[in-house]
Amino acid sequence: MPSAADVVATILASFDSLPIYLLLAASALILLLAWGARPRRVYFVRHGETEANARRIRQAEAGPLSALGRAEVAAAAAHLARFPIQAMVASPFERARETAAILNETLRVPLTFSPLLAERRNPSVVVGRSEDDPAVKQIMDAIDRVYHDDDYRYADEENFLDLKDRAKKLLALLAAESPRHVVAVTHGIFLKMVIGYLIDRENLHAGEYAKLSFFNAADNAGITIVEYEPLKRCNATRGWRVLDYNITPYEDTKPPSAPLNVAPRIPAPIS
């Protein structure tokens, strides 16, 4: 009686070898395409409250989290622990680095940094000054809360077109290279640009972005979840969609006078 190996060898010998190799290659290609077509999720986290946020000071790259900010981030980490996070990428700014470090005490995943996630560069003249300074308010209103052309620039800040281009590059990078579940630590103004571009793509203009930014708060340590589906990359949003926006899982860290999850707060909090 022939062995199982002999039977298999006889069956294979009955086929021409080329079709067999083509079948195996096609099967491998199908598996590869199926692997690459799996949806990917990005969990954007805005940094926790900083000492400058608490004092309503316009920031640049430097500046640590406040005690409240660290507690907010710890609560965000506990919320994210329920997801199968595989990696984390963060803005190189001090407040984002500190946020990522606190998150990673819980998540324990590979951590990298990317300037694509940095906050919009403020005009040098306002850095370190109070949002309540009338001169600062006038400058920032002209940039953020007044309709203007897409290429408007007050001084040396990143303007709308700069920020839009950076959001486009970030989404392209995440679509091409991110694992299935990745945390991205970023900042309020840039996060709103990412969401605006994700939804409207090249139809996003300064006027629409001003409305989106004004009416949609991005809280410190808030979590926004988006998904990319490669098989839908030919649709209007190129396969992207927003699953949840500005989750704030830290009610116990806020005093009763500062209720959460009330929408919208106007104006949106400063960077």
Please tell me about this protein's structure.
The protein has 271 residues and is α/β, with parallel strands linked by helices. The chain has 2 domains: 1-36; 38-253, 3-Layer(aba) Sandwich (Rossmann fold). 42% of the residues lie in helices and 13% in strands. It contains 9 helices and 6 strands. It has helices at residues 4-13, 17-36, 51-54, 67-80, 94-107, 134-144, 160-177, 188-200, 206-215, and strands at residues 40-46, 87-90, 111-113, 181-186, 223-228, 240-247. α5 links the parallel β2 and β3.
Q: What string gives the helices and strands in order?
A: HHEHHEHEHHEHHEE
Q: Approximately how much helix is present in the residues?
A: 40-55%
**Secondary-structure-derived class:** alpha/beta
Total domain count:
2
Largest sheet: 6 strands, mixed
- Look at the structure and name the CATH superfamily of the largest domain: Phosphoglycerate mutase-like
Neighbour order of strands in the largest sheet? 3-2-4-1-5-6
Query: In one word, what is the shape?
Result: globular
CATH level 1 name of the largest domain: Alpha Beta
CATH architecture of the largest domain: 3-Layer(aba) Sandwich
User: What is the average of the pLDDT values?
Assistant: 86
Q: How many runs of DSSP E, i.e. beta strands?
A: 6
